[in-house]
Structures are given as structure tokens and as C-alpha cells.
Amino acid sequence: MRLHIIASAVIFGIGAAALAVSAEGDDRREETFRQLELFGDVLSRIEADYVTDPDKAELIEAAIEGMLSSLDPHSSYLDPDDFQDMQVSTSGEYGGLGMEITVRDDLITIVSPIADTPAERAGLESGDRILAVEGESLIGATTSEAVERIRGPEGEPVTLTIGREGQDAFDVTLVRDIIEVNPVVYRIEDESLPYLRVTTFNEHTTERAVEAIEDMSAAMGGRLPGLILDLRSNPGGLLEESVTLSDLFLDGGEVVSTRGRDPRNTQRYNARPGDMLNGAPIVVLINGGSASASEIVTGALQDRQRATVVGMTSFGKGSMQTIVPLRGGRDGALRLTTARYYTPAGRSIQATGILPDIAVSARRLDPEQPPRFTEADLRNALDNENGAAREEIAFEDIEQPPEDWAEDEDFQLHRAKEILGSMLETRSAQLQ
Fold first, then answer.
1. Catalytic one among 79, 128, 230, 303?
2. How many independent structural domains does the chain possess?
3. Are 122 and 172 in contact (CB under 8 A)?
4. Catalytic pick from 292, 294, 314, 348?
5. Would you say residue 87 lies in a domain?
6. Catalytic pick from 317, 348, 361, 377?
7. Co-location of 98 and 210 in the same domain
8. CB atoms < 10 A from the CB of 66, how many?
9. Is 303 an annotated catalytic residue?
10. Is residue 159 located within the same domain as residue 58?
């Protein structure tokens, strides 16, 4: 199989050269051939003179990975095992600790822990750096290498060394588990306020959200009066699921559009007629760990004036990745950034994130502490093509918990309930 990877790389090189011949002219063709020749010379010299006999397939894989990672933080090569793991994770069940990770400044960094997993229960946070696994450094490791080191048999403990802003590095021991990601958690808050938390966008998200809304409607004896939609620390997932979830709350119209390198390839995704809540007010909760598909939903509901967004500015991942299997997946796959997405108002949130309508922090803030990491901080992150920069909310404009607020009480949810309750009172008064 690994020899097939080498063959695929050679074929890719030949194809690139052929493309140069047909589309780029003689000068570009010669430059392409020169670079391919340079690659072959380096590989030959390593094979001939390196101090030990190298694994040629590993060298080719490393070259492919390096090529893709130089493009942006989200393009990468998935070897056959990683490709299989990715397919399993989007179906909703996989082994591990339950967190989305990326590389920032050569450090493995947590984008967000997934709800009700060992990572969340251990108190790991968005922005934490995983410095070592079982005492062995992860500095300079790729995400694939980190995943391989972190994963293991269910029930076995693993100790991570965590770096967190403003604290000394510390160790935390977690027990590996089978992560059965339930994409939806729901309940009735305070006997009258429906609450729906979406933790990820996998193949079952919209289906489970519909079941949750129907269950809550039955419990309340009719249509829901309103809804708190919690997308905090939701790292995203499948574009199609973000569109169908948004569709539940919109009566037609655009949800999101995607644009690739060729503007003629713009695609628009629209909601169907019919709002499952019949116009009832919605409060959307977001934070710095809300990324990608969760930002699509938030942007659609905000631009369409369908929801009030509460919390902190989202992560700012406004690009779309396409999975390209190699030889039917036998040689793994490419995860390649192929488009940017835009909210119904034409906003690109790449590197900027979505600003909440009402800024509410989960904890008391230190004005001297730097802001938490975002998409814009990642190495080779795409710029916002409109030239927009991430806007930091003024410290005095952020609602914060009172000094005596209990740490185990959710202040953002508390404010969301107050805001939705006020909206319901106003709506009731208007109907009378």
C-alpha cells in the first residue's frame, strides 16, 4: 500500500507537469519540471547518503503533508487509517478523549472539547496547549501524530501536560473512552424555556434536533414558545447538516453561499418554506470555540434577523474543506480547502468571527490578559478576502458574572434565559 502512495505521488507530479504544458505556457512548464527534478534529486540524495536507510514511503507522505500544510491550517493528508477514523467520527462514534485539535505556533492546541466527553469532564478548555503525552513532548508534532499518541484502548488512562495562558504547565490524567457523540442535548429550563444544545454537526444532527423539538413541544403541550440554541464550543462538522439545521428555523431564503477560486462555481444553499417554531424567538449562544458549521448557523439566523446572538465572538473559520479520496481511499485522502463560505448578507467571517448582539462572558475577565486564540492566530491562516480584521469587543461592553457568582453556575446560560424570557413577555404583550 505504501508503494502505491509513492506511485500516486509520481503520477501527481506527471499530471502537474502535463497541466503546466497545457495551461501555463513554456516558462511555467519549464519551472514545474525543474521543481519536480529538484524533488527527485533531493529524494535520491537522501536514499543514497542518509545515515540510515530511510523509509521511502514515509518520506513521500511527509512531503505531501508538508505541501498541504503550507497552504492553510485545514488542508492536510490523511493516511488510510486517518481517513477511516475521519469517516467513523462523522458518523457519530469513535475512540478517544473527545476534542478538536489544531496546530498553533508548533503546539498542539485545543479548538474545543466536545460536550460530555473525558476532555470536557477534565476541564480542558479552548486554547489549551497539549505540550506532552505521558511525558513525551508533542512540540512540533502534527495533528495526526498527536492523535496517534493520544488515542488508545478504551478504559486506559493517559496523562497530558497542559499549557494554559497565565498558569504554569500542569498534568491532567484522563481515561480513554468510546466517544459516542450525541450531537444534541435538550431540556426545558425553569419549566418554560426550551433549551437545545448542538455539540457537533455529524450525520445525525438535524434528525436529532427535530426529535428534540418534537419531544419538548409534546412536553409543553404545543408549539415551543421560543428556544435557546446553544452552539458554544461546537467545532463544526458537515456543511449539509448546518444548512438543514438552519432550515428548521427559517421560512425559505438563503442560508449560506460558498465561493471557490472560480467565481462561476458559487453555490447557494437555501432553506425550504416553513419554520418549525412558527417565528417564535430564538437566542443563540456562542463563544470562542464555536467554529465553522456552527458559525454558518449563527450567521444565517443573525443576518436573517431570526435570532439574538449572545456570548463571545466566535472562532472565525470561514473556509470549506473537501475530502478527496486517493485510489478510492486505499491511499488515504486529501483534505483540501476548496471554498470560502459567506453569510446571507455576504459577510465572510474568515479570521474575523461573528460578533454577538449581546456580549456576555462566561467568567470574569482580566483586561491585562491577551484574548483567546482564534483562526487568525493559526499558521498560514487564510486572510479575510474583504480585508476585514477581527474586531475585539470593548472590555466595558462585555457583561461579566458578579464577583460572588458561583463557578459551577453557567452565567451565559443564565443571561440567555433572562433575554429569552424578556422577549417572550414582550411578544405576549404585543399579542394581547
1. 303
2. 3
3. yes
4. 292
5. no
6. 317
7. no
8. 11
9. yes
10. no
